[in-house]
Design brief:
This protein has helices at 13-16, 20-25, 117-126, 128-153, 157-171, 184-191, 195-207, 223-231; strands spanning 29-32, 35-45, 50-52, 60-66, 69-74, 80-86, 91-92, 103-106, 110-116, 177-179, 211-213, 218-221. It is an alpha+beta fold. The strands form 3 sheets. It has a 5-stranded antiparallel sheet with strand order 1-2-9-4-7.
Length: 232
């Protein structure tokens, strides 16, 4: 069963099971350096565990410390559309309205910091620096939504997958080598493709020398060739 936040001061998860990270260290971290009263509580989620569900009250905001999170909506025909992947350092769950528009689930064993939303909003009214940082987060989320629209608008599966891998590489620091935290089905549901098409396209890009796979989900990119796929 997924773990869901309730309209109280702590997520239901903190009451329904033993939070490993809280009891292990007791460590608490601030959200903004110039606002030390915005303290987050560390918490752990297991792979595939629900963090919050679509339509639930958006009382908490989350920052990924380790691991990865996906957000998604279920369409009217029952299909799942993944709307974003949140990697280490990402802030998610900050909604414009009072409820969550998406469901969020841990892609792997994941550690997060949980912040109450209301104190953040109050801090923004008192501190221009906090307000500016929240604005930057909001514009980053908007940019992510625009990037997804551009990805879905690309003509071919190769273009979509190549652009996606370049984006993920950028979020991992442009090292060119990384382990994908998401499955091929996750990628398919993000790019609007079938899992068979994603698997076939990975093989095509590898045959063309645009990437190299090394067991599991670890890949090495040939960025110039991937960009050529995107730009042609």
């Amino acid at each position: 069963m997924g773990i869901k936040a309730t309209p109280r001061s702590t997520p239901a998860a903190a009451r329904s099971r033993t939070p490993r990270s809280i009891h292990a260290s007791g460590h608490r971290t601030g959200l903004f350096a110039d606002c030390p009263d915005l303290i987050g509580t560390p918490f752990s989620y297991a792979r595939e565990e629900e963090i919050y569900g679509e339509g639930e009250e958006a009382e908490f905001v989350y920052r990924v410390v380790e691991g990865a999170v996906r957000s998604h909506k279920v369409l009217s025909d029952g299909r799942r559309q993944i709307t974003g992947f949140h990697l280490a350092g990402s802030l998610f769950g900050f909604e414009q309205g009072e409820v969550h528009w998406h469901t969020a689930e841990a892609l792997s064993d994941t550690r997060v910091l949980i912040f109450q939303r209301r104190p953040i909003e109050r801090a923004a009214t008192r501190s221009a620096e906090v307000a500016c940082q929240l604005w930057s987060m909001a514009t980053a989320n908007l940019r992510d939504a625009q990037d997804l629209t551009l990805l879905l608008g690309r003509r071919s599966a190769q273009e979509r997958l190549a652009a996606f891998l370049i984006e993920v590489d950028g979020r991992f620091g442009r090292t060119g080598t990384f382990a994908l935290p998401m499955t091929r089905r996750d990628i398919a549901d993000y790019l609007g493709l079938t899992i068979e098409t994603v698997s076939r396209t990975f093989s095509q890009l590898e045959e063309e020398g645009a990437l190299r796979r090394a067991g599991g989900r670890r890949i090495t990119l040939h960025r110039a060739r991937l960009r050529h796929v995107v730009e042609t």
